[in-house]
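ok so I'm stuck.
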Amino acid sequence: MNTKNTVRFRDMPARYDGVSRPLHWLSLLLLVTQFSLGWLMPDADSVKAPVGLVAWHVGIGTSLLAVFVARLVWVAMRRSPGPANQHGMFRFLAAAVHASMYALLLLAPLLGWLNASGRGWAVRLAGVWDMPQLATPDSLGASIGEWHSASATVLLILIGLHVFAVLVHQIGFKDRLLRRML
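replied:
not stuck anymore, here's the structure
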């Protein structure tokens, strides 16, 4: 797609690097697992302590947070491929969706951690290493479970938009955009 508003970044790498790609796909794997557990586990309001699927949800949530922080650090250290060769409005929408996804990939697990801490639950990174308690049972943290759920729902919608856009590029525009992350 070539218009007068199209910008080419010839000095940018054509693909994401060998660290960014595995971190991206690991994030996806953890997210699919996390959303599946979130739908299958019992209502967290009825749980006194994180056991079973709830414990797995908390452990994978902390793992997702750790992987995302690693992604943020890596993004800050390296050059990524420039934006896709597309019209300014599409480039703006892509940047907005990516920024929103990044914000929610940080916010949703943090809200979950805050909520679990407020319930008095032990929060462990990957279910193994103890993490600090961020809240107490009488604090706001105990009552923000709905915020955690809402942020996760918005994140899922944004992921759907992201996948849809990749498919439009791959099938509609035939610009092989997906190849940058494979």
